[in-house]
Amino acid sequence: MKSSSEITKAAIENFVREVISSVGENSKRDGLKDTPKRVARAYEEILSGYSKNPEEMIKLFDSNGFHELVTVGNIEFYSLCEHHMLPFFGKVHIGYVPNGKVLGLSKFARIVQAYSQRLQTQENLTKQIFDLVYKKVSPKGLIVLLEAKHLCVSMRGIKNDGFITKTVLKKGLLKTQSGLLNQFYKDIERSN
């Protein structure tokens, strides 16, 4: 009996063979004969976020009285657009003001990775990261900013290669105190 992973890989391999044939190529040609297996393995890795629970990645520590802005910037991500299944990629920047607890720094990158390795829209990815951090850390203020390049815009349709999309969510002190918001933007500008 095949495992569900083997069945899924076989389905993807069959689909890729069909795509290759439907564009007039020979799926048995030397350069293409292993392509269905490579694509199935790539999708298994690229879409591995479905097997990860980001809530389990949370590791909180006492802030020891620290209650100033913490900025974690330039977290690289790669995802597949749920509309065209083409890549979009970029950087995530997160700023928060602790309310008694801080999140382990590596956990930000793990959360971003778990959510980005799914079929996504940039807006949904921004909201998922924001909602989880806000729910688990309960900060006094939070901002999540994503900057991304979408290959569905660069490669097809309008074919605009310089197109960058930014999405942002903010709450609490980072929404009401312009000084903190300005500090966040200065922090991420310095890190680029």
- Principal-axes geometry comes out as elongated
Overall mean confidence score, pLDDT:
94
Give the total of beta strands. 7
Series of secondary-structure elements, N-terminal to C-terminal: HHEEEEHEHEHEHH
The helix content is: 40-55%
Descriptive account of the structure:
The longest helix is centred in the N-terminal third of the chain and has 19 residues. By secondary structure, the protein is an alpha+beta fold. Strand 2 and strand 3 form a beta hairpin.
Quick gist of this model?
The protein is α+β, with helices and mostly antiparallel strands and 192 residues long.
Helices, strands, pairings?
Blueprint: H1 4-22, H2 35-46, E1 60-62, E2 70-81, E3 87-97, E4 101-103, H3 105-116, E5 119-120, H4 122-137, E6 141-150, H5 151-154, E7 165-172, H6 173-176, H7 178-191
Parallel strand pairs: 2-5
Antiparallel strand pairs: 1-4, 2-3, 3-6, 6-7
Helix pairs in contact: 1-2
Provide keyphrases for this structure.
192 residues, alpha+beta, five-stranded mixed β-sheet, two-stranded antiparallel ribbon
